[in-house]
Structure of YqeG family HAD IIIA-type phosphatase:
Amino acid sequence: MSKELEARDKVNEVNRLLRRFLPNEHVKSVFDIKPEDLKAKAIKGIITDLDNTLVAWDVADATPEIIDWFKSMEENNIKITIISNNKEERVKLFSEPLNTPFVFSARKPLGRAFKRATQSMGLNREDVVVIGDQLLTDVLGGNSAGFYTILVVPIVQTDGKITKINRQIERRILSWMRRKGMISWEE
């Protein structure tokens, strides 16, 4: 094989791998995700991240707006499960008042938590959307497991230590995608 073909194959492989970080949709917040739009796509369930997706990472409880968003999904028979890499205490404190199932210490982007959440909702992955604020955990995990993914803008621009590292990597990936014309939104 010629060096040109080898180089082109490597570029194609890198492009294919980086596409795993490309969400199906990008929105400013979960409030832009309406039950009518999900139902039009035959979506019956949501797997959502918690920190910086539903509330700021350092906010313990659901806001009144998030409570209303959960209620609107429930009224439209759309099930929700929260999966988070955070500890049980954090996720339970947020989820239990909403009467929402959750998976803690999910180890995203690994697929087990996504599959577990889908099974607990009694749905197939084609019926479920994954929502989150991080490419390296939520989008990569959702895409790798075969879900429709929606990336939201992080609620706040501060993060925990590990997430700060992820954000630096994300910026590079987003910059590459922007240069390739794969995305048009701004950070």
Notes: Residues 161-179 form the longest helix (19 residues).
